[in-house]
Amino acid sequence: MNKDTAIFAGGCFWCMVEPFDQQPGIEKVISGYTGGHVPNPTYEEVCSHTTGHTESVEITFDPSIISYKQLVDIYWRQTDPTDASGQFQDRGDSYRPVIFVNSDEQRKIAENSKEELANSGMFDEPIVTKIEDAKTFYPAEEYHQDFYKKNPLRNQIEELGGRQQFKDTKWKK
């Protein structure tokens, strides 16, 4: 299997795993933290909003089966790209929407996709999701991994708490 990685932040990492994990060509999706200045942060430290980290997911994928562009397209459907202050009920810098790129090619794909989305007329507000260079990714504690499998009812509640409502109302059909 060819392998590449993608890192996306879009609110609570619990809700970011399942949409990617279900795709062909995905080897694994890990919940974690990136973008900050403290090595090996804990969940409690990230929640304190003092480490600079953003909750995110690191996706290991086979680009011969699913492209980075396809992953970016899935990402846009999981986030509110017009909200820089967090996502849905999750507020603050640790929940901001960011595409973390690890190559010039990923940056080009992400920037082109963001421009296409901005020009699509799908949103009345500007697209504010940041595209930043990938930094060290730290896996979250084990109890955060595969949350949707371990806690299906709570995951459904989280989903209904904002993401699904957003998808149903803000995305123009």
From TrEMBL:
Enzyme Commission code(s) on record: 1.8.4.11
Keywords assigned: Oxidoreductase
Keyword Oxidoreductase: yes
Keyword Oxidoreductase: yes
Domain Peptide methionine sulphoxide reductase MsrA: 5-154
Domain of life where this protein originates: Bacteria
Swiss-Prot/TrEMBL catalytic activity: L-methionyl-[protein] + [thioredoxin]-disulfide + H2O = L-methionyl-(S)-S-oxide-[protein] + [thioredoxin]-dithiol; [thioredoxin]-disulfide + L-methionine + H2O = L-methionine (S)-S-oxide + [thioredoxin]-dithiol
Role of this protein: Has an important function as a repair enzyme for proteins that have been inactivated by oxidation. Catalyzes the reversible oxidation-reduction of methionine sulfoxide in proteins to methionine.
Protein family (similarity comment): Belongs to the MsrA Met sulfoxide reductase family.
Matches recorded under NCBIfam families: msrA
Protein name as annotated: Peptide methionine sulfoxide reductase MsrA
Gene behind the chain: msrA
